[in-house]
Amino acid sequence: MIRKKEGFQGQRMIVIPRNILSRKCAKEALLSPLYITDIGYYPRALFHHRKRPQGADQHILIYCLEGKGTVTLKKVSYNIQAGDCILLPRKWAHEYSADEKDPWTIYWAHFLGSSSDEITEKALKEWGGHKTFLPHSPERLEQFERIYQQLQRGYRSEYLAYSNMNFWSFLSSCIYPGIHKPGQANQQHDAVDQAIDYMNKNLDKMLTLQQMAAAVNLSQSHFSFLFKSSTGFPPIEYFNHLKVQKACQYLLFTSLRIKEVAMQLGMEDPYYFSRMFTKVMGVSPAQYRERKN
C-alpha cells in the first residue's frame, strides 16, 4: 500500500524554525500562551498517512473540508468526513490516513503554549469528545488563509504576533461554532443564549427566575442548572451583572442622576441599586462616575 506523509499536488505547509519557537514564541509574553509550530493545507491528499506511536510534541487540529479519512487516538478510531474537526492532544499516540476512494482535503495546525493544554481540554469538554462538526464558514477559512499568508512572509515580531493572535480567534470559532455562527449552537447553549437575549431586552425590569425559565420553556431547576453550568453564574447574578454593565454606560454617557439610573434599570430603591453596583464594581456609582470623568 502506498503511504505518504506529504507531497500532494497543491499542498502548502509551513514549519516554523525551531530556533524561532524557542527564542521568540516560547519566551515572549505576548506569544507564549498560544503559538503555531506548523501549519498547512493538503488538498485531495491521496495516500496521506501518519503514525506517531508516542504522539506529537504539539497539539494537532485537523479540519476536513471535503472527502474522508480516519483518525485513531489511543486505539479509538474516528471516521472523518467533510465538516469534521478533530483535536489530537500532545503526547497521545495516534495514526491518521486519507480515504483511498475519496481522500480528504484538510486544513491543519500544530500548536503549543502555556495555555495550550487548557485550551485543548476546554475544546474536548465543549465538544463532548475529540471530534466535532463545524458548519461551513467562509470567514473561518479566510482567517486561516490570513494566518498562513502572514507566516509565509517570515518571522518578524509583528508577523508572529498577528498570526498567533488571529489563531486565538480561529480556535475560538472551532471550539464555539454556535457563537461564531449564532443560531447553530447546541440545544443547551441555545437556551442559555436565548435567556441572555431575554435579559438584555428587559434590563428595565426586575425579572424573576420563574420569568427567565418560562421565556426559554424550561423548569426553574433545569434552567438554573443549565445556565450556571454554561456561564459559571446563577441566572439572577448574571442578570445583575448585565444591569451594572448598563448602569456604567448611563453613568459615563448621560447626565442622569443615580436615582434616575436606578429607575432605568427597574429599581425603585436607589440604595439597593448602589449596594448592588458597589458589590460588583468595587466602587459606588458616584465614585465610578467621578473617576471616569
Question: Can you summarize this structure?
Answer:
This protein has helices at residues 18-25, 116-127, 138-152, 157-175, 177-180, 187-201, 209-215, 220-231, 235-253, 258-264, 270-281, 285-292, and strands at 12-15, 35-42, 49-52, 59-66, 68-73, 76-81, 84-88, 94-98, 105-112, 131-133. By secondary structure, the protein is α+β, with helices and mostly antiparallel strands.
Instruction: Give the spatial strand order of the biggest sheet.
Output: 1-2-9-4-7-10
Structural class: alpha+beta
Question: Number of folding domains?
Answer: 2
Q: Quickly name the level 1 CATH class of the largest domain.
A: Mainly Beta
* Integer average pLDDT: 90
Strand content: 15-25%
Q: Report the uncertain regions.
A: none
